Every structure is written in structure tokens, then in C-alpha cells.
Amino acid sequence: MPCYVDTSGDNAWELRLLTLTVCGVFAQLESKGELTAVLSAIDWPSREPRQRLSYRQFAEEWWEDHKKADRDRKKYKAEQERKRLLLQEIAAKLTPEERALAGL
Q1: Would you list the domain boundaries of the chain?
Q2: What are the pLDDT digits (tens) for 28-74?
Q3: Is the pTM for the entire model greater than 0.90?
């Protein structure tokens, strides 16, 4: 039987924890080639007529979107770090007066 989800109240912390958990579990299962089998074994609720996707399709789409967002975030962080190091390298070549004028 599918789980019950209480959607009342302020559950931002719980949502973050569940997202982190599902991400970690999905990543481990996918790395071992077991994600599809596990998703197939879940007793998903029936799709309601107004739903665009089944629950399983939603989970698979969420996972693909989540992985893309993770890749984009890591790429952004790497670019920010590259710029920080470049600025640090440039600042090291300046005199104290030049650094002060540049606001560094």
C-alpha cells in the first residue's frame, strides 16, 4: 500500500530532508544499476485522471531534473571558485596601493 503523506503545516525541513534522502538513495541505486528494478517493485498509487504523469513517471522525471540541477549547481560553484582564484592571483600581483584603489 502506498504511504500516506501529511501535506499540512510547515514542512520545509522535512521536504529538504526527504529530498536529500531520495537523492542519495536514487544515486546509489542508479550507480549499481538497480534503480529501475526498485522503481518497478514499488506499489505506486493509480494515476488520477487529471495527472499528466503517473507517480512513477513523476519520480523518474523528478530524478532527471534533480540530477540536471545538481550538475548545473556544481558547474556554477566551480566557475565561481575559478573566478575567486583568478581574482586572488591578480590581486597578489598588485601593490598595496593598487589593491586599495581596486577595493581588494
Answers
A1: 12-102
A2: 999 999 999 999 999 999 888 888 999 999 999 999 999 999 999 99
A3: no
Burial 15-46 (b: 16+ CB within 10 A, else e): eeeeeeeeeeebeeeeeeeebeeebeeeeeee
68: Cα separation from own chain's centroid:
8
Residue 45 CA to residue 61 CA, distance in Å, equals 17
Distance, in Å, from the CA atom of 39 to the CA atom of 33, rounded to the nearest integer, reads 12
| Cell 526527504 found at | 18
In angstroms, the Cα distances linking 62 to 17, 22, 58, 59 are 16, 11, 6, 5
